[in-house]
Design a protein that fits this description.
It is a single chain. This protein is 76% helix and 0% strand. With 491 residues, it is mainly alpha-helical.
Amino acid sequence: MSAKVMEGNPKYNSAKMWQIAFFALNNTATNLYMFAIGFVSYYATGVAGLSVVVVSTILTAMRIFDGFTDPIIGFIIDKTESKFGKFRPMMVIGNVILASTMLIMYNVTHLLPESMQFLFFIAIYAVYIIGYTFQTAVTKAAQTVLTNNPKQRPLFSVFDASYNIFVFTGGQVFVASYLVGKHGDFTLSLFKELNMYAIILSGIFTILAIIAIWEKDRKEFFGLADQTVETRFRDYWPVLKGNRPMQMLVIAASTDKLASSIVRQPAVLIMFFGIMLGDYALSGTISMITIIPSLLITFLGVGYARKVGLKNSFVKATWIALISFAILVVFLLIIEPTVISLSNIGIATIIFLVLYSLGMGLTGLTNALVIPMIADVSDYETYNTGRYVPGMMGTIFSFVDKLISSLAPAVVGFLVAFIGYTDEFPQLGESLTVSLLVMTLILKFGIPMLGWIASIIAMKFYALDNKKMEEIQTAIADIKENAKDNEIKTS
């Protein structure tokens, strides 16, 4: 069936292109905070004076707490039906909490007595997480009302991946090439300036996302509407236990998320670019270079997904990413890493850029494909049990995903401590020892490769290919149509 025919099919709730593009900004709004808060370990150790192990432990514990807040907020979303809709109030509440807590965290913590800093940091970070969960839960849950058209749903990934490239890649360039140079190091003034940009841009993006979902945030688009099965909080476990596609997607996405979270840890970037390659500024410059190939990979990957389905595209991209990083590790072991330079480009630099761009571009694509796949899993639950619980489905996914990916700061902290860095993270200007070289390759490339292997295995048991999703959407549309006909007959 052609894309044009499907988009005009009355069985599908299709969206306008601008609605998909603008709603993807809700994820960008929270990713801005994710990027900015990624440097909190340097604030906590360098400005507030907490130790590396303490900060790593706190961040891990808070990430676990983040996971436990998800089911509660997902349940709140599913039970919410206001005159402002189900999703829009949560977006506003979440963004206001995020802005407030970021301002308080970076302006108050270091001014407190040392005896109070630890508890205050934990408390304000916990409130920050609640706000983050409110807004991120909507990104996943509202996919079900934005569009259920199999040809449109992958389009979210195009916009989401493109925006994220500019957040994480452009953000790293901005920090490494501009803010560090302007402020001299990771100082308090750097953190305040970075957070100011994150707060302003996130607020603007949230407003645009609210406008995009406004028309769709109505009961008529909520699953089976009046036929939805009543769900209680204690139904979370039966839903997770009985939904095999959800289980497999959680495994695939959470292992990938752990890997990508580790790769983006500031300490890992300093270890790889600043110490192993000998030029920290390369982290920003090379990230800029990878923008175009990453965008091209995203466009091609989503175009492929619209033809063959999200699952097929996800698996193919994961295989190619795994192979590219495997070759890159071998390559880095047989060359002198410091020859990789943009001031004197040789064959080694070109090979590195090709393999690195391919791996990072495909990482962005697979991460972006997961969000519309969560909507598929939610629709499968509606089809299978009659329950319309997008908040529950999205936050069950987030709960397990965050429990696993919460290990990122701890993994980095304890692994660098294992090779001797117990009081502080590796710093710019240090010599590259054998142990530091091995640990850098493990953190930067080895862990992502393990994550991709887990994803490939999980997708073997994920049944929601393009044919199955067409069957599901047709069945849901028929149920709605029959219910509408019965209502007319009895009125």
